[in-house]
Design goal:
The protein is α/β, with parallel strands linked by helices. Helix content is about 35%, strand content about 15%. It has one domain. Strand 1, helix 2 and strand 2 form a beta-alpha-beta unit. The longest helix is centred in the middle third of the chain and has 18 residues.
Length: about 90
């Protein structure tokens, strides 16, 4: 791999989902260059997110490489529906 100042500043971000949330898969992703893992809190629940964080940390320990965790918080949503005439 080519090492240059630009390469060192470049980060590869991967979103964690059902297809890649195991320690084994996360380990492979780190080995192939992923620097930061994104957890989308708009999907899943607290237990799922906590498990993803624990698995990322374990994969980081296994590879001996640091991996960042980016938590993407669910933002406000526009909800449309029928309005009552007399609230």
């Amino acid at each position: 791999m080519i090492s240059s100042p630009a390469r060192n500043r470049t980060k590869i971000v991967a979103t964690v989902g059902p297809a890649c949330d195991s320690v084994e898969m996360l380990t492979k992703l780190i080995e192939h260059g992923v620097n930061v893992f994104r957890i989308n809190t708009a999907h899943g629940d607290r237990l799922t997110h906590a498990r993803a964080v624990a698995n990322i940390r374990e994969a980081s320990v296994r590879t001996g490489r640091g991996a960042g965790i980016l938590v993407d918080l669910a933002g406000p949503k526009i909800r449309l529906g029928a309005l009552f005439e007399n609230p």
